[in-house]
Amino acid sequence: MLYGIAAATAALLLAALLAALLRGPALRAGIVDRRMQRRVPLLGGLAVVIVTCFVAWVGEWTRIAPLGDGVGRLLVAAAVLAGLGLVADVWRLRARVLVTGTAVAAACVVPYDETGVPGGLLAIGWIVVASLAFKGLDHVDGLAGTVGVVTAFGAGACAAAEVLDGLAVLLSVFAAALTGFLMHNWHPARIGLGACGSLFTGFLLSSSLVLTRAGYGLGPSAAVVCCFGAVALADAVLVVLARWLARRPLLRRGPDHLAHRLRRLGLTPPGSVVLLGAGSFSAVLVGVLVHTGWTGEEAVLWVGGGALVAVGILLRIPVQRPRRVTSVQVSSQLRVRNG
After folding, report:
1. What's the rounded Cα separation, in Å, for the pair 306 and 192?
2. How buried is residue 230: exposed, middle or buried, by Cβ count under 10 Å (0-12/13-18/19+)?
3. How far apart, in whole angstroms, are the C-alpha atoms of residue 124 and residue 128?
4. Residues 69, 151: Cα–Cα separation, whole Å
5. Is the peptide bond before 111 cis (omega within 30 degrees of 0)?
6. Quick one: what percent of the chain has pLDDT higher than 70?
7. Percent of the chain with pLDDT over 90
8. Could you tell me the pLDDT band of residue 240, with boundaries at 50, 70 and 90?
9. Helices H / strands E in the chain, number of each
């Protein structure tokens, strides 16, 4: 208990400090994103990854909080995927490269002896979808971090209920590191997660749920994990439907997300994040209660129904057509070549 408190405190402070230190290098290197005509550096996720891995390694090295083989392999796979995301932040990799990398990483952490091969393949698909859906949340200041912290605490509670102490400690450290990052990511954000941090977050959370639910029935497990990913999945479904109905390319950025449409209804940027964070908390709470047996599986239907109703309503909210904005990294490279 004392180590958990000390580790979480250290992770929070270190992540906040490192995120502040990485802001300048990210701006100088041009690793930035455009949000409302602001340049937001994208190395905040690197701070979260470094701090989470370092604090977890200290616990493993000192044997105060050993992770265990499965959890250690999960952390290594998540860190490698974060490295791929960092490359994507710098050079803008194609989507299929990220999908392939996430699938390979997922294949390395699924416990096939407990899920079986068919269940393992479904688990890989879930991890890929959840990781990329979570990456899509990193378009608004504070949203990915808020949903990530809420989900990490819920997943940690489920891991603790299964006496997976190493996984529970890892998730608490990760939640603390994300909280430290959020100190710089709340609107107006001074630094963002980027693909490095968002892929790491989505992969770590979704894979943790797979390890926690290993050995349970496929249907109940699918219901629980969908509760944990309700906001990210609803956001992804809304974006896909909106762009398909408008006959626009799926991968072209635009104001189609949940937060964009809530702002069209009059909410402020922080207000939309708070509302979506509350929705995530409610859905995660249902997932925890179902996993621990405090409520029946039918409670999941309320989460799914609520998400579908929200998507249906927000799909009718008109949004501004996206303007074609040249990436800051691409434009700077063109200036150098033409210079």
Report:
1. 29
2. buried
3. 6
4. 23
5. no
6. 94
7. 76
8. very high
9. 14, 2
What radius of gyration, in Å, describes the C-alpha atoms of the chain? Answer: 19
Residue position matching structure tokens 């974060």: 82
Q: What mean pLDDT is reported for the chain?
A: 90
Long-range CB contact pairs, 310-316, < 8 A, 24+: 310/234, 310/258, 310/279, 311/234, 311/237, 311/238, 311/241, 314/238, 314/258, 314/261, 314/262, 315/238, 315/241, 315/242, 315/245
Average the pLDDT over 207-214 and give the result: 95
How far apart are the C-alpha atoms of 248 and 181, rounded to whole Å?
34
- What is the torsion angle, in degrees rounded to the nearest 10, for the CA atoms of residue 51, residue 57, residue 62 and residue 67? 120
**DSSP-assigned beta bridge partners for residue 246:** none
Bridge-based pairing state of the strands 32-35 and 38-41: antiparallel
CB-count exposure of residue 98 (10 Å: 0-12, 13-18, 19+): buried
Which amino acid is residue 57, in one-letter code? Answer: W
The pLDDT tens digits for 4-56 are: 788 999 999 999 999 999 999 999 999 999 877 788 999 999 999 999 999 99
Q: Is the Cβ–Cβ distance between 32 and 331 less than 8 Å?
A: no
Cβ neighbours of residue 83 closer than 8 Å, sequence gap 6 or more: 196
The residue type at 246: A
Asked if 44 and 190 count as a contact pair (C-beta separation under 8 A), the reply is no
> Identity (one letter) of the amino acid at 164?
L
Tell me how crowded residue 61 is: count the other CB atoms within 10 A of its CB: 9
Q: Please check the confidence at residue 323 and state whether its pLDDT lies above 80.
A: no
Q: State the average pLDDT over residues 181-201.
A: 95
Predicted confidence (pLDDT) per residue in 140-151, tens digit: 899 999 999 999
Chain mean position to CA 94 = 19
Instruction: Dig out the tokens for 232 from the structure.
Output: 């990210």
- How far, rounded to the nearest angstrom, does the alpha carbon of residue 249 sit from its chain's CA centroid? 23
